[in-house]
């Protein structure tokens, strides 16, 4: 299957990052290299592009899409949660711009056998790094306690019927292991009352999201990755993050707000004693969303939210 992934908010991302010849750019979610390819054009001929992904198929597609050999491009396999180690490995001294396009790619959703989609019957996998030895979604579904399943589905999927879905899963796996997406979809449909299934999209959407986040530890990686990116940025450098659901967006918004806080001393003190200075300036006061034309051309862009911040100081307290 050809790796196809349409970059979301491409013009908005590159405009806000203010890329130019000589910039050092890190795309932490390389995917099909849609954002990276445009960034490479803008920073040529002397800039450096680092592309990171833990999906071998994404890295292979990027090698075909990017002008390797024509300019400085470094492709690394890894999780952006390990950004410090990856940039040390790449011998990058600093970074002018970071790109994070969070969540699952269109290729991963569409490729039969990866187990991300509730529209296709496939092995219940959901690993973004299909070659890793990490637990699969089937491992989670068949080994986690009912309480842990309910918690994951409630917290990561924001699913109202989490406890009921977890109970149905545990009852079903007592008869035989749950190994396919089709089996899980049927269980979720049976657990969610008919009245609730008629609204809010596919009834399994939130459960699948929750399992994918748990399998890949996505939210922890987002937190670690953004914290590291802020450290690596030079003053004036920018960080652009696209999120697709409220859990990711809250993490990004909170990280930007915390890093942009200044003095925290109690009001009334004659002078600051905490020494805290803002590290970031939030560029997008409200998240940038796709235009109607982009959503019409790429419906999966509908939920995208772009936030951008600029480094203003080397460190804070």
Secondary-structure blueprint:
Blueprint: H1 10-17, E1 24-27, H2 34-43, E2 48-53, H3 56-65, E3 72-77, H4 83-89, E4 95-101, H5 106-110, H6 137-143, H7 146-157, H8 162-173, H9 181-191, H10 194-197, H11 205-216, H12 218-232, E5 233-243, H13 246-259, E6 280-282, H14 292-297, E7 305-311
Parallel strand pairs: 1-2, 1-4, 2-3, 4-5
Antiparallel strand pairs: 5-7, 6-7
Helix pairs in contact: 7-8, 7-11, 8-9, 12-13
Your description of this structure?
Helix 2 links the parallel strand 1 (24-27) and strand 2 (48-53). The chain folds into two domains: 10-101 and 218-311, Rossmann fold, CATH 3.40.50.150; 117-216, Putative methyltransferase TM0872, insert domain (DNA polymerase, domain 1). It contains 14 helices and seven strands. The protein is α/β, with parallel strands linked by helices and 317 residues long. Strands 3-2-1-4-5-7-6 form a seven-stranded mixed β-sheet, with helices on both faces.
- CATH topology of the largest domain: the name is Rossmann fold
Shape: globular
Rg over alpha carbons? 21 Å
Q: Specify the CATH class of the largest domain.
A: Alpha Beta
Q: Mind describing the biggest β-sheet? A: 7 strands, mixed
Please give the CATH architecture of the largest domain: 3-Layer(aba) Sandwich
Spans of at least 5 consecutive residues whose pLDDT stays below 50 are none
According to DSSP, the number of beta strands is 7
CATH superfamily of the largest domain: Vaccinia Virus protein VP39
Q: What class would the helix/strand composition place it in? A: alpha/beta
Estimate the strand proportion: 5-15%
Q: What is the helix content?
A: 40-55%
């Amino acid at each position: 299957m050809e790796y196809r992934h349409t970059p979301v908010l491409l013009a908005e991302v590159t405009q806000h990052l203010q890329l130019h010849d000589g910039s050092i750019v890190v795309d932490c979610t390389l995917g099909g290299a849609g954002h990276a390819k445009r960034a490479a054009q803008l920073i040529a001929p002397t800039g450096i592009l680092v592309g990171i992904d833990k999906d071998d198929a994404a890295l292979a597609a990027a090698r075909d899409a990017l002008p390797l050999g024509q300019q400085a491009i470094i492709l690394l396999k890894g999780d952006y949660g390990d950004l410090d180690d990856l940039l040390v490995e790449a011998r990058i001294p600093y970074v002018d711009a970071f790109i994070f396009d969070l969540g699952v790619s269109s290729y991963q959703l569409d490729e039969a056998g990866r187990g991300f989609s509730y529209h296709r019957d496939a092995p219940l996998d959901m690993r973004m790094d299909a070659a890793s030895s990490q637990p699969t979604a089937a491992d989670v579904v068949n080994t986690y306690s009912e309480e842990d399943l309910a918690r994951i589905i409630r917290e990561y999927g924001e699913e109202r019927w989490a406890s009921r879905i977890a109970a149905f899963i545990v009852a079903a796996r007592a008869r035989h292991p749950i190994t396919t997406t089709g089996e899980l979809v049927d269980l979720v449909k049976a657990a969610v009352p008919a009245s609730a299934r008629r609204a809010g999209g596919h009834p399994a959407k939130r459960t699948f999201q929750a399992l994918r986040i748990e399998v890949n530890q996505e939210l922890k990686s987002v937190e670690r990755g953004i914290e590291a990116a802020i450290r690596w940025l030079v003053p004036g450098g920018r960080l652009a993050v696209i999120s697709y659901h409220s859990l990711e967006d809250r993490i990004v918004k909170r990280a930007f707000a915390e890093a942009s806080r200044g003095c925290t001393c109690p009001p009334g003190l004659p002078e600051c004693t905490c020494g805290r200075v803002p590290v970031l300036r939030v560029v997008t006061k409200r998240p940038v969303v796709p235009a109607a034309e982009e959503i019409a051309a790429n419906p999966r862009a509908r939920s995208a939210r772009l936030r951008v911040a600029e480094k203003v100081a080397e460190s804070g307290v």
